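Saturday, quiet lab. Running sequence design on the structure tokens for the scaffold JK sent over.
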């Protein structure tokens, strides 16, 4: 896409969903299809690759107004939607955040938000232990759902939600998404496309890491440290799930066997209230694995790696070339070849159509993390409109992550190799 076309695309009018969806009821998810045939065609027609993401906003209710609540709210509004309601752990927290999130109103409770006829899509951005009950309630109320990862803190909960989502999809085409948002970096799509085209050859090794340092000190604390709120697996459940999703999404391989070990650097941490408590969740995990297509790999997952903020790093080596993606440098992809290596730079004019589709800005105008969520919400809206966007992560992918986390936990406990159920 040429720069002027990108600028034109960004200027093009955004459909205002409020009036068009007026009259939607809690169970009337088909209100979204009250658009004219022409409008529906706009949504349902996947872009050919150079015209950008489809724009169709929806009315969102956001549960949780912390880091992710803000990211989701911006994405909803960028996509031409409105945040009709927000709710948090208490009304004052929600009220304090409402302006920042651009919310039209505050709900007294999650139940009130889910029941509201002014909400088409419920976004669950709360601590992990609440995901199952909130996403279940939203699906039972007839809503589309975007539920943060981990979808559930165990396989049982994730399987239940995946089953409910499948039934909702079957019944009335409802959409249930888990934000494995790193899939939406254009250079991730470029890597996936090159793997698909055979440019990497037969993949022999796929390895990497996801490193952060925000829990480096024993005075660092968060609800994620408490297994009752974050789940039994912390480092792997929180960010290892992203690594494995990125690996499987980009390569098309599935991890079938793994062996893992974990470390808890501090047996105790001091909470914000000054109280010392025992730590039962891991700070770091290392794992080795095999894929269903014969590749081998290793990964290091850590929340205590000084200086590393959000370094999700994936390297794919095949018989022809190596591709390396670093989430902190998402505008580039390294391509290694025996004769010559090069740094591929995001440029919608030269990328594959699959990657150019997610390029919202011209080359040299960096885009990053927030744009991934913008694209995820745009594709969610397109899916609600009847399209089938390539690579939209669903509750099935959330269940997959829960199975991998369970296998990691089992291996840590047994010390041996574990088969990962599909
Ligand atoms: N996809 C990603 O890249 C990504 C990144 C960060 C976090 N996450 C996930 O997003 C979720 C939220 O993480 P965060 O970092 O925003 O946490 P946070 O602590 O910043 O915010 C949590 C919010 O949940 C609210 N909350 C608590 N109980 C609630 C209830 N009963 N009803 C409604 N709201 C309630 C709190 O008031 C707070 O606003 C987690 O599941 C996390 O794993 C995903």
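Result came back. Writing it out in full:
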């Amino acid at each position: 896409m040429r720069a002027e076309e990108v600028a034109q695309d960004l200027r093009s009018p955004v459909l205002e969903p409020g009036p068009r969806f007026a009259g939607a009821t809690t169970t009337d998810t088909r209100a979204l299809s009250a658009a004219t045939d022409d409008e529906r065609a706009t949504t349902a027609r996947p872009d050919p690759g150079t015209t950008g993401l489809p724009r169709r906003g929806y009315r969102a209710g956001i549960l949780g107004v912390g880091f992710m609540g803000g990211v989701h709210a911006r994405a909803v509004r960028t996509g031409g939607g409105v945040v009709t309601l927000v709710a948090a752990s208490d009304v004052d927290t929600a009220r304090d955040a409402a302006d920042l999130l651009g919310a039209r109103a505050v709900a007294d409770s999650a139940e009130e938000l889910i029941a509201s006829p002014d909400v088409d899509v419920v976004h669950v951005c709360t601590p992990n232990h609440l995901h199952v009950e909130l996403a279940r309630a939203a699906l039972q109320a007839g809503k589309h759902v975007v539920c943060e990862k981990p979808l559930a803190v165990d396989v049982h909960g994730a399987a239940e939600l995946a089953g409910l989502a499948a039934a909702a999809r079957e019944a009335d085409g409802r959409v249930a998404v888990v934000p494995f948002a790193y899939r939406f970096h254009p250079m991730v799509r470029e890597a996936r496309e090159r793997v698909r085209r055979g440019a990497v050859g037969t993949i022999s090794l796929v390895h990497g890491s996801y490193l952060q340092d925000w829990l480096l000190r024993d005075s660092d604390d968060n609800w994620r440290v408490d297994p009752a709120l974050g789940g039994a697996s912390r480092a792997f459940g929180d960010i290892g799930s992203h690594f494995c999703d990125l690996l499987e999404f980009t390569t098309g391989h599935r991890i079938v066997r793994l062996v893992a070990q974990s470390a808890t650097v501090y047996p105790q941490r001091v909470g914000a209230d000054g109280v010392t408590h025992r730590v039962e969740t891991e700070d770091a995990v290392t794992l080795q694995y095999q894929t269903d297509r014969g590749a081998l790999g290793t990964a290091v997952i850590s929340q205590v790696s000084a200086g590393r903020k959000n370094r999700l790093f994936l390297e794919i080596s095949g018989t022809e070339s190596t591709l390396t993606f670093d989430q902190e440098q998402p505008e580039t992809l390294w391509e290694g070849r025996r004769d010559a290596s090069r740094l591929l730079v995001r440029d919608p004019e030269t990328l594959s159509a699959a990657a150019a589709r997610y390029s919202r800005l011209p080359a040299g105008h960096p885009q990053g993390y927030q744009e991934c969520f913008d694209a995820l919400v745009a594709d969610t809206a397109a899916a609600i409109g009847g399209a089938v966007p390539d690579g939209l992560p669903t509750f099935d992918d959330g269940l997959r992550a829960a199975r991998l986390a369970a296998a990691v936990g089992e291996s840590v406990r047994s010390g041996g190799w574990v088969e990962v159920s599909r």
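Notes for JK: The two ends are 39 Å apart (CA to CA). The first strand starts at residue 59 and ends at 63. Ask whether to fix the surface positions before the next round.
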